[in-house]
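Batch job 17 of 40 flagged for manual review because the log was empty.
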Amino acid sequence: MDRVRSVAAEVPALRHCIVVSPIVVSPVVVSPVVVSPGAEPLSLEMLPDPIRYDQALAAASADRPLVLDRGDDDLYLLYTGGTTGMPKGVIWRQADAFFGCIGGGDPMRMSGPVSSPEELLERIIDFDFVFYALAPLMHAAAQWVSLMWLLCGAKVILHSGGFDPVQIWETVDLEKVSIMTVVGDAMARPLVDAWDEQGPFEISSMYSLSNGGAPLAPSLRDRLREIAPNAMLTDGFGSSETGIQGSRRLSPGEDPGKGVRFDNVEAGTTVLDDSGHPVEPGSGVVGRIAHSGFIPLRYHNAPEKTAETFVVIEGTRYVLPGDMATVEADGSITLLGRGSVSINTGGEKVYPEEVEALLKGHPAVYDVLVVGVADERWGERVTAVVQPTKGSTPTLEELDAHCRGQLAGYKIPRSLVLVEQVVRSPSGKADYRWAKSTAAASLG
């Protein structure tokens, strides 16, 4: 807060600064109070002119206040996870973000977006529903889904403190959580471990377990379905630059099939080939994921990256987030991975996520990132950076045998680097820059 105070005079448009701190009295509406991190909980005597919440509510006008100079063109700034480089600020119009990022008043994608603010009132649920956000609020998955459910009257639980998987399972029971969202294997794996070591826990209230923001290994997906056999498993895809692009819902007992496939695709999402035309379903052609419609304005202070990512093709403005995919005969999209982290080995492209998903099924692999390391013969050599499970020391030969018959030969790792811990962002995103430099340093 000292830093906020020091720059406040330079930001005349700053009107409010909200400080969250425990208050050892019943809820009150208070004047602004500056609290330093680690300070003692507030007491009533410390607050200037406190007003009880019920008194403030009774004195308030029933009319909606008129706020000048605000509207659909207000800006929303969200930062990317920095999977392939430094995080980038993405600037959205508020209206585009409402429809593109948080569902337009339709969190379950069942009723369609609203056409007026008044229609939001008709979407308020009349039953108990609790969403549990595990990712930090810096992450789009936590921000967007929390806002979706808040706008329809649900209760939202924010995880506090470090990632304690036992505490998380206990919170599901304590708060009677309906939906919980994880961000890939970095969250799913500790939850599965805690269940196996200290469970089972009471989770009968859980209607759905969802994943977004990072891939979920098939082995962990299957284990989560065993843990919560009566819950729907939802896998979503999108990015800070595109908003929500699609999802896949697996009902209890449904066969997931192979690959990372999404059959519920949002309007505006397509796959473009090298000439900028939509990929023909069932053709097997690999193209770039593209999205049009409700999309951002630009990157913050990055005109070159903006020009590269936000393009106009035959009169339509698209955002190209960098994901590669193909379109199945039924119109569903199979996601392959980020083109910027793909490995070119002997002229063939290898998408790390596909190899990582298979390696994570080996009992000696706790976590893994796959990168390309410079090779005189092949250009790049597929390399696995592995965090072993406790007490295990996997060998390259063991991992090769595990992959044979399930991957094309050129995709199988040719080098192995063992590390104490695979580095990921606070939200669970892969740090491929770290993995690549670690592999290069280890292999010389």
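Reviewer: the log was empty due to a logging misconfiguration, but the result itself is present. Residues 185-198 form the longest helix (14 residues). Unflagging and moving on to job 18.
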